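ESCALATION

Customer reports they have been waiting on this structure for their group meeting. Please prioritize. Original submission:
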Amino acid sequence: MHRFNRRAALAAMLGLVLPACTTPSPTLRFPQITFVHLPPLRLDAASLEIVDAFKPSFASPNVEHLMPVSPAAAARRWARDRILPVGNAGRIVFTIEHAGVFETQLEPAKGVRGVVTKDQSERYDAALKLRMSIDGGDGRRQGEVSAEATRSRTVLEGLSLNKREEMWFRLTEELMGDINAELESAIRQFLQPFLVPRS
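Update from on-call: job pushed to the front of the queue and completed.
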């Protein structure tokens, strides 16, 4: 009887422990990528239209639809946070022309080195292309600027989903940092007649 109770207790303990070992890692929660901490670019137009001309394939090798924050979503947020129409007429059109992230499988190392070391298993290439046009509404003033940015990252084989998503999030952050600097510079340089200073 005593031996049976010990076995039953051991089985009960294993029954409690084993499910805990197979519990998946908790899903990471990522913050939004915003630009409200930066001053808005005040432009002499009455409205802002955001056009998403990029159509994701939702299929490999593209992965932007799997990312916590896709480049297209971050670009839309940039336009809403940074472009401020303050005029009485005219229109700003902000177009997302390309916002893809492409996954490439990398060849593992061969021989002894491939057995004893972890290799970079995938590379992710992100590209973002934006265009912004403005019509002053008076039939005379028109302007256009564009910006492009690319970033790449590789990951080690066996990377967990949480770590991969964290890398994707940082990739979008870095891409938007480049785009923000390039677009603001272009707007200040080429759309100067449309910029409205704070009163």
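Sent to customer with the following note: The mean pLDDT is 87.
Escalation resolved.
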